[in-house]
């Protein structure tokens, strides 16, 4: 486990109340746009179950609710009790009746019914062993289920990618992440990538896949 990831539970408990501010700053003001992009790529049926692993305070939920029908269900999982407490506050305040948040290690999450879509939104690189985390996500998906991953993944190929990668590694020190170029390769082996969308000058990558 990377030392940056090892202390994440305590770190996220401490910063939970200002998480959205930090996300706004480190995303160069693009956090809400990123959340909308994730929601826009949902391909799920009416009455779908969508699971977000590493949901934080529920920041992406408003965008997901805007896309999903009222009979769908969103389940947010996070290991930070303070993040889940804040997420539940947002739920009560906004009347998110079809949203449930659970505080637990994601590997302990064992749903009765499998999900139509699993989302990692700015969380995968903060989880030790991204391969194990991806395998867990795939294990709770229905056949042909959708996996959406939004994160900062080091890139190659464009002249400006080294600058984007430098910023990615800088902010990783702050948020407790470990950027790994191997994420895309691993996803390509395990799923059928429908789209790879590069955003914010290469700082963020959105992988839209199906199993």
Could you give the order of the helices and strands?
A: HHHHEHEHEEHEHHEE
Query: What is the 3D shape?
Result: globular
Which secondary-structure class do the elements indicate?
alpha/beta
Annotation, overall tally of beta strands: 7
- How many helical elements? 9
Can you list the strand order of the major beta sheet? Answer: 3-2-1-4-5-7-6
Helix content: 40-55%
- Strand percentage, roughly? 15-25%
Mean pLDDT: 94
Radius of gyration: 16 Å
Euclidean distance between termini CA atoms: 27 Å
The biggest beta sheet is recorded as: 7 strands, mixed
Task: List unreliable stretches of 5+ residues.
Answer: 1-5
Oligomerization category of the chains in this entry: single chain
